[in-house]
Design brief:
Helices cover 47% and strands 13% of the residues. By secondary structure, the chain is of the alpha/beta class. The protein is globular, with a radius of gyration of 19 Å. It has a single domain, classed as TIM Barrel (Alpha-Beta Barrel), CATH 3.20.20.70. Helix 9 links the parallel strand 6 and strand 7. Bound molecules: glyceraldehyde-3-phosphate, 1,3-dihydroxyacetonephosphate (13P), sodium ion (NA) and zinc ion. The site of 1,3-dihydroxyacetonephosphate (13P) has 14 residues, from strand 3, strand 8 and helix 12. This is Fructose-1,6-bisphosphate aldolase. Keywords: Calvin cycle, Glycolysis, Lyase, Metal-binding, Zinc. One of its GO terms (molecular function) is fructose-bisphosphate aldolase activity. It holds the Pfam family F_bP_aldolase.
């Protein structure tokens, strides 16, 4: 069955585990993730971007795929979430299409790149949360700007590239403001800026020690105990996947992501939803590259895609196990 984000994360909070939220754009990613969830006995968050809804799969297709997955895997609860909506239309249309949760990211304006004022964020998020709650759907808000604490550059919000240099404290969500924001908007989950950024190119050097602003996470969690913290930009960009891609014709410059141990530390301090897209893309496309090079006579697309699915399933199983999601399906 499909469940709301609130239902799933209330349960996760009660039992102290984290839930990865994987972005999908097609049936095969959905099947690979659900195979992993079945093996691990894990609940699942599948999320789709606006680009996927509007110009790749389409709403009818994404919702049909996820409903079919729910029928095929009756033991694994699934939340279908709209990732990064920047206005009322994006969120309400997702819910009316069958999503059980949506992100109203009012930290940016409707264009998805211009930083928004706090007042705009509160106003639009409160309005969308009120509408969503009429239907039983959940809303995730965002407070703060995701960027790199290493460089002080604002990260790629929504993959589209937000504005220039920011101060460190602008990059971290303020705990007092978080409590005020949650009280004013009634969001079920809150995405916070705590040291991560979107995409494959998060850090230019191997992170030594602490990546996440743990004291910030703790303070925010303490101030909003009934609202679930979300960490975007949580791909680890593992070396083995960079190597897989680069050994088979790819050309990805060396980069570093968020180590899985850091995410585990975040979960211990209150993070519940962990957004992962880049790692899934790397696993699937890397394995397809390898298959293509190793099987030059093969021209059956299923064989390529199955190779990609197997690598994705391995990655997803690892995250379910390490985040503590396994065994809670
Ligand atoms: O943060 C959102 C996604 O990682 C971007 O995905 O390329 O489908 O817009 P997209
Ligand atoms: P990554 O680019 O680190 O996978 O982050 C994805 C994300 O936050 C989607 O909302
Ligand atoms: Na989201
Ligand atoms: Zn995100």
């Amino acid at each position: 069955p499909l469940i709301s984000l609130r239902q799933l994360l209330d349960y996760a909070a009660e039992h102290g585990f984290g839930v990865p939220a994987f972005n999908i754009s097609n049936m095969e990613q959905g099947l690979a993730i659900m195979n992993a969830a079945k093996v691990c006995d894990a609940p699942v968050i599948l999320q789709a971007s606006l680009n996927v809804r509007r110009s790749y799969a389409g709403d009818r297709m994404i919702v049909a795929i996820v409903n079919a997955l729910a029928d095929m895997y009756p033991e694994n609860p699934i939340c279908l979430h709209q990732d990064h909506g920047h206005n009322e239309q994006a969120c309400v249309s997702a819910i009316s299409a069958g999503f059980t949760s949506a992100m109203m990211d009012g930290s940016l304006m409707s264009d998805g790149r211009t930083p928004a004022s706090y007042a705009h964020n509160v106003d639009i998020t409160a309005r969308v949360a009120r509408i969503a709650h009429w239907t039983g759907a959940s809303i995730e808000g965002e407070l703060g700007v995701l960027g790199s604490l290493e460089t002080g550059e604002a990260g790629e919000e929504d993959g589209s590239g937000a504005a220039g240099k920011l101060d460190f404290d602008q990059l971290l969500t303020d705990p007092c403001q978080a409590a005020e924001f949650v009280a004013a908007t009634k969001v079920d989950a809150l995405a916070i800026a705590c040291g991560t950024s979107h995409g494959a190119y998060k850090f230019k050097r191997e992170p030594d020690g602490d990546i996440l602003a743990i004291s910030q996470i703790e303070a925010i969690h303490h101030g909003v105990p009934n609202t679930h913290l979300v960490m975007h930009g949580s791909s680890s960009v593992p070396q083995y996947l960079q190597d897989l891609i680069n050994a088979h014709g790819g050309e990805m410059p060396q980069t570093w992501g968020v180590p899985v141990e850091e995410i585990e530390r975040g979960i211990r301090h209150g993070v519940r939803k962990v957004n992962i897209d880049t790692d899934c893309r790397m696993a699937m496309s890397g394995a397809m590259r390898r298959f293509a090079l190793e099987n030059p006579a093969n021209f059956d697309p299923r064989a390529f895609i199955l190779a990609g699915m197997a690598e994705l399933e391995t990655l997803v199983r690892d995250r379910f196990e390490r985040f503590g999601t396994a065994g809670h399906g």
